[in-house]
């Protein structure tokens, strides 16, 4: 009876059933609005209103099925505020609304991982297609959809790739808090993202979309129903990002333990703050521009239709006002992780803490002033080019601060080449190439030459995959023992790292050459003399994909089968989260800790953080 | 994975109400910042499309928004925000019945503004397809209504709590009432009713901010 009641309660199963029902209800209502038809399920004509209403009502019903309606309903009837939903034991809490930040962090890890896998699979399909100069697996339209789904999935879901799992899990522990500022909003950001990812996958049911991840007008307006999935996906991601950033900022601003001044805040938290600022301010612009696109497709507005008083350039401008800060939303958490981990594995204090913070905040500020470099070849006023060229080049200075602080931290340190450290060191190499090619691309004449080619594609893969995904894995190897209380296999981890590092460079390095030789992005065919390079890249990409399977095997083997208990502080870190037992107690701290210094005092006499309860576990350096 | 047999609320109950009050205050400011950037897109769109005037269809002569409706919608929004502010002053001085009256009036004024905005759309004489200005007008006002609905829902929550526990001493409601958890032995927050003030301060700020945006919308969409 109890099992049955659990099955029909608020959980993922109920949510999926209600979500599908809600989708069909929205679809039905859409048809009632646009003209009655009984042929709801086998329709050929495109009906954007039905599709959008279906997505909207599907998401609402999905959230209601998870239990998100209970609290607002109680509040509407005047019941007082409360912090937590009913928390259940066991695995069930991972499949419903749970307000424990550690559970949400783990939910994010699996959820993001799932969609990262889907995005990666699309990349494998793309490279399989490019084994031949002419299309041989997918028709051009389907190839474009694959490219668009890969880019959109990665750029959308991975915005929360580090903040979702790790900031949610670790930030309250690092700052001595028992919870996030708004636990329900924290859970909502995760489930919104899962709904968004599912919606993007459904684009294939409506014919896909031809625009790539940028969704440029006027193609956006002319595309078939699959474009609606792109718009709904990215708008939901934008809402999720805004709320995630707001929650993290509120948590760090208001919930720091006594003694944890801004100048003692762990550098990872600074990385989170700088990212959260961009999320709170940039993501709403994305939601706004996609709302306009939705209205153009459903409400007969003409924001982006030049012949009716609008302009497609409005979309391009607004998209990149969001889009360039978005790049740093992806990169900045990686900076934070590298700077957080290097002192632990170099056994030295973080060099130039204030300079590193200045670097993070400098990137945050300058990222607002560069968006038009994406429009250098779009016919913008040529007088604007020098400003945007200069501002883009300037951003390499605060980025250089981060590099400098990282390098000086490992300089003459007692380096331990653990798996997380290897991923951090790889970040230096990858991001250096990504950054330098970025300076090259910021220069207007060279940008005009390489715009839209595989050169720029190689550049942003070096920054985003080299910068974000490598640090994402560093964070996984570093914090998973704390999150799950289980050790990961070091040998498999090192095999994963080396295979991934070599294959990554073997995949994206040659693409600079391919781009210089004139191969454009998002085109299924290419000149036959580029086949060798393309085949080389494709084979390397398959090896890169295989390296992910090694990681997955390591994770599943260690979490499900081996289950070797991890010590509380396997890295001898001074950071507060590692002073707690593994797994972390549900309420984190029985008494609030008191900070008397920063967490980077390696080699100093006394530990800087006072942890009064329950009992410090693990070794201290 | 950490596993819990049952939540020991006796450990988590000790959180002081000031903490959530601080969170609400911070969140209201951050939310206002996010809202500002959302509408910044429409402000940008307004001036961008106006400067381009593509196909001469930025603002055809036949497209004209009603000054009267615009002014009344804006005035009602500002009046509603002002009433919430006055209600907050009453609450701070312990005049709770007066706050409830002003809160109810603010809710009514806000709802009237929304209804009038919808009436304006039906009476306005041009559609969203009538050029750049028309698109901006419909898009901006539609989302303004959406944000107003959210803010008024927040205000209604606070007002409803205030009304439900109007005659009960602070801290009296049973633990777990809000979340419907009958197994709770204590509150999450030491004195949940004290958060009416914190919530009121937060919603007062945010609603005043939205009223400011309504004034900006009126200037840009009706006066310029």
Write the topology of this structure.
The complex is a heterodimer of chains A (621) and B (224).
Chain A: H1 2-7, H2 12-34, H3 48-66, H4 70-76, H5 101-129, H6 140-157, H7 163-174, H8 183-201, H9 219-222, H10 226-254, H11 267-298, H12 312-346, H13 353-366, H14 385-394, H15 396-410, H16 419-442, H17 444-450, H18 454-484, H19 490-516, H20 531-562, E1 594-595, E2 609-610
Antiparallel strand pairs in A: 1-2
Chain B: H1 9-12, H2 17-52, H3 67-92, H4 96-123, H5 132-164, H6 195-223
Helix pairs in contact in B: 2-5, 2-6, 3-4, 3-6, 4-5, 5-6
Give structural attributes:
heterodimer; A: 621 residues; mainly alpha; Cytochrome C Oxidase, Chain A; 2 domains; two-stranded antiparallel ribbon; 2 strands; 63% helix; B: 224 residues; Four Helix Bundle (Hemerythrin (Met), subunit A); disordered N terminus
Short précis:
The complex is a heterodimer of chains A (621) and B (224). With 621 residues, chain A is mainly alpha-helical.
How would you portray this structure in words?
The complex is a heterodimer of chains A (621) and B (224). Chain A is mostly helical and 621 residues long. Chain A has helices spanning 2-7, 12-34, 48-66, 70-76, 101-129, 140-157, 163-174, 183-201, 219-222, 226-254, 267-298, 312-346, 353-366, 385-394, 396-410, 419-442, 444-450, 454-484, 490-516, 531-562, and strands at 594-595, 609-610. Chain A has 20 helices and two strands. A two-stranded antiparallel sheet of chain A has the order 1-2. The radius of gyration of chain A is 24 Å and the shape is globular. In chain A, 59% of the residues are buried. With 224 residues, chain B is mostly helical. Chain B has one domain: Cytochrome c oxidase, subunit III, four-helix bundle (Four Helix Bundle (Hemerythrin (Met), subunit A), Up-down Bundle). In chain B, helix 4 (96-123) runs antiparallel to helix 5 (132-164). Chain B is elongated. The chains are: A mainly alpha (621), B mainly alpha (224). At the A-B interface, helix 4, helix 10, helix 11 and helix 12 of A face helix 2 and helix 5 of B.
């Amino acid at each position: 009876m109890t099992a049955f009641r659990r099955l029909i309660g608020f959980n993922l199963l109920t949510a999926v059933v209600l979500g599908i029902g809600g989708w069909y209800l929205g679809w039905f209502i859409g048809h009632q609005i646009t003209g009655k038809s009984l042929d709801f399920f086998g329709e050929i004509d495109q009906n954007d209103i039905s599709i959008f209403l279906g997505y909207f009502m599907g998401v609402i019903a999905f959230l209601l099925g998870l239990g998100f309606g209970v609290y607002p309903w109680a509040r509407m009837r005047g019941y007082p505020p409360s912090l937590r939903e009913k928390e259940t034991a066991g695995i069930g809490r991972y499949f419903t609304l749970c307000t424990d930040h550690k559970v949400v962090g783990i939910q994010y890890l699996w959820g993001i991982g799932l969609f990262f896998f889907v995005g990666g699979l699309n990349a494998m399909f793309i490279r399989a297609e490019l084994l031949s100069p002419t299309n041989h697996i997918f028709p051009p339209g389907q190839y474009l959809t694959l490219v668009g789904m890969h880019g959109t999935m990665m750029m959308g879901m991975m915005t929360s790739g580090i903040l979702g799992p790790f900031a949610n899990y670790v930030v309250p522990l690092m700052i001595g808090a028992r919870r996030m500022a708004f636990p329900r909003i924290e859970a909502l950001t995760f489930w919104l993202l899962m709904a968004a990812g599912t919606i993007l996958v459904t684009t294939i049911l409506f014919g896909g979309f031809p625009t790539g991840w940028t969704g440029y007008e006027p193609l956006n307006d002319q595309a078939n129903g699959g474009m609606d999935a792109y718009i709904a996906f990215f708008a939901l991601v934008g809402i999720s990002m805004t709320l995630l950033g707001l929650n993290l900022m509120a948590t760090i601003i208001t919930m720091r333990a006594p003694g944890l001044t801004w100048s003692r805040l762990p550098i990872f938290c600074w990385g989170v703050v700088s990212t959260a600022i961009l999320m709170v301010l940039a993501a709403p612009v994305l939601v706004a521009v996609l709302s306009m696109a939705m209205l153009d497709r459903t409400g007969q507005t003409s924001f982006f239709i030049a012949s009716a008083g609008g302009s497609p350039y409005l979309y391009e401008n607004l998209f990149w006002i969001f889009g360039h800060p978005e790049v740093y939303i992806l990169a900045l958490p990686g900076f934070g992780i590298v700077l957080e981990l290097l002192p632990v594995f170099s056994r030295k204090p973080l060099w130039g803490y204030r300079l590193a913070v200045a670097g993070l905040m400098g990137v945050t500020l300058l990222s607002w002033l560069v968006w038009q470099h994406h429009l250098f070849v779009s016919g913008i006023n040529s007088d604007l080019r020098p400003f945007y060229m200069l501002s883009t080049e300037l951003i390499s200075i605060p980025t250089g601060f981060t590099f400098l602080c990282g390098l000086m931290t490992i300089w003459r340190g007692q380096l331990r080449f653990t798996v997380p450290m290897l991923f951090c060191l790889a970040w230096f190499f990858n991001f250096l190439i990504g950054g330098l090619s970025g300076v090259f691309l910021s220069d207007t004449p060279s940008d005009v030459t390489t715009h839209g080619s595989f050169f720029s594609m190689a550049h942003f893969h070096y920054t985003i995959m080299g910068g974000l995904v490598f640090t994402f894995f560093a964070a996984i190897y570093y914090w998973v023992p704390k999150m799950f209380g289980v050790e990961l296999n070091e040998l498999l981890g090192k095999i994963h790292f080396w295979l991934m590092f070599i294959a990554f460079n073997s995949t994206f390095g040659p693409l600079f050459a391919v781009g210089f030789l004139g191969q454009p992005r998002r085109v299924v065919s290419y000149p036959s003399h580029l086949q060798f390079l393309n085949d080389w890249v494709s084979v390397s990409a398959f090896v890169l994909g295989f390296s992910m399977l090694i990681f997955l095997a390591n994770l599943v083997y260690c979490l499900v089968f081996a289950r070797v208990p991890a010590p509380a502080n396997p890295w001898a870190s001074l950071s507060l989260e590692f002073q707690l037992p593994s797994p972390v107690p549900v309420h984190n701290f029985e008494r609030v800790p008191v900070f008397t210094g920063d967490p980077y005092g390696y080699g100093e006499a006394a530990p800087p953080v006072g942890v009064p309860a329950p009992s410090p576990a693990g070794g201290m350096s | 994975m950490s596993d819990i047999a049952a939540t020991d609320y006796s450990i988590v109950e000790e959180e002081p109400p000031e903490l959530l009050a601080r969170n609400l205050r911070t969140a209201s400011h951050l939310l206002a910042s996010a809202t500002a950037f959302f509408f910044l897109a429409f402000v940008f769109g307004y001036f961008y499309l106006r400067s381009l005037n593509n196909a001469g269809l930025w603002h055809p002569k036949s497209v004209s928004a009603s000054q009267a409706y615009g002014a009344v919608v804006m005035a009602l929004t500002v009046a509603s925000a002002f009433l919430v502010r006055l209600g907050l002053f009453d609450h701070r001085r312990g005049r709770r019945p007066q706050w409830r009256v002003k809160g109810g009036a603010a809710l009514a004024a806000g709802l009237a503004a929304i209804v009038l905005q919808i009436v304006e759309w039906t009476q306005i004489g041009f559609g969203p397809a009538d050029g750049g200005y028309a698109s901006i007008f419909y898009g901006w006002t539609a989302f303004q209504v959406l944000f107003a609905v959210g803010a008024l829902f927040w205000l209604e929550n606070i007002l409803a709590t205030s009304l439900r526990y109007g005659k009960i001493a602070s801290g009296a409601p049973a633990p777990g009432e809000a979340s419907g958890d009958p197994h709770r032995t204590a509150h999450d927050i030491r004195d949940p009713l004290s958060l009416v003030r914190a919530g009121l301060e937060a919603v007062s700020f945010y609603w005043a901010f939205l009223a400011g945006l309504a004034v900006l919308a009126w200037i840009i969409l009706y006066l310029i």
